[in-house]
């Protein structure tokens, strides 16, 4: 199941870089705003939100993606970064996941170091970390909704990349609705709260 979710999430991230999400065969648009797009994958019963950013210093595209499965109680956090040229084609790396509130003075580093699997793409490396279990999923989606940005750091506190999360609250809500609907689940199910 992880491999299928990894491939689906990787494909979604690639689509964000290369083509319109509507042209992806497994993915279909669900909801869109000025900053975020939510897509559904009927086959894997997942929904994902994504956003691309242009890095001002280099003009390169960075992609941030979150894939959610209400059925599996799983969230995959994914990003594509073109700057990680020293890494092998694939492997694992530990990164600190830090959420920032308004400005950079308030931080939530409660997730600590997480293992990210990575694989080389033409545009850089795609990194993915899975969060499983109802409590982890609930906490991750809450942190994504209430924070202003998310950053990923090496064990030496060197930033790999960071993404703004402005207006993510309605996008997360839509992704959750999508995941419940695609799986045939009720959002008020007490075992999913």
SSE blueprint:
Blueprint: H1 2-18, E1 27-32, E2 37-41, E3 46-54, E4 61-69, E5 74-81, E6 90-100, E7 107-108, E8 113-121, E9 124-132, H2 134-146, E10 149-153, E11 159-164, H3 168-183
Antiparallel strand pairs: 1-2, 2-3, 3-4, 4-5, 5-9, 6-7, 6-8, 6-10, 8-9, 10-11
Helix pairs in contact: 2-3
How would you sum up this structure, described in words?
It is a single chain. The protein has 193 residues and is of the alpha+beta class. It has one domain: Sandwich (Immunoglobulin-like). Helices cover 24% and strands 41% of the residues. It has helices at residues 2-18, 134-146, 168-183; strands at residues 27-32, 37-41, 46-54, 61-69, 74-81, 90-100, 107-108, 113-121, 124-132, 149-153, 159-164. Strands 1, 2, 3, 4, 5, 6, 7, 8, 9, 10 and 11 form an eleven-stranded antiparallel β-sheet that branches. Residues 1-24 have low confidence and may be disordered.
């Amino acid at each position: 199941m992880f491999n299928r979710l990894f491939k689906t999430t990787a494909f979604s991230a690639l689509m964000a870089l290369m083509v319109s999400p509507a042209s992806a065969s497994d993915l279909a648009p669900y909801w869109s705003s000025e900053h975020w797009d939510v897509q559904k994958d009927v086959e894997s019963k997942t929904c994902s939100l994504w956003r691309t950013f242009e890095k001002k210093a280099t003009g390169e595209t960075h992609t941030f993606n979150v894939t959610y499965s209400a059925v599996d109680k799983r969230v995959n956090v994914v990003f594509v970064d073109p700057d990680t040229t020293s890494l092998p084609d694939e492997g694992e790396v530990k990164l600190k996941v830090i959420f920032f509130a308004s400005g950079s003075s308030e931080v939530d580093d409660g997730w600590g170091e997480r293992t990210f699997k990575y694989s080389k793409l033409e545009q850089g490396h795609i990194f993915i970390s899975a969060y499983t279990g109802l409590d982890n999923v609930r906490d991750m989606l809450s942190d994504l909704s209430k924070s202003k940005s998310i950053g990923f750091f090496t064990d030496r506190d060197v930033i790999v990349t960071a993404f703004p999360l402005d207006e993510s609250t309605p996008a997360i809500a839509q992704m959750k609705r999508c995941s419940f609907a695609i799986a045939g689940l009720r959002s008020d199910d007490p075992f999913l709260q």
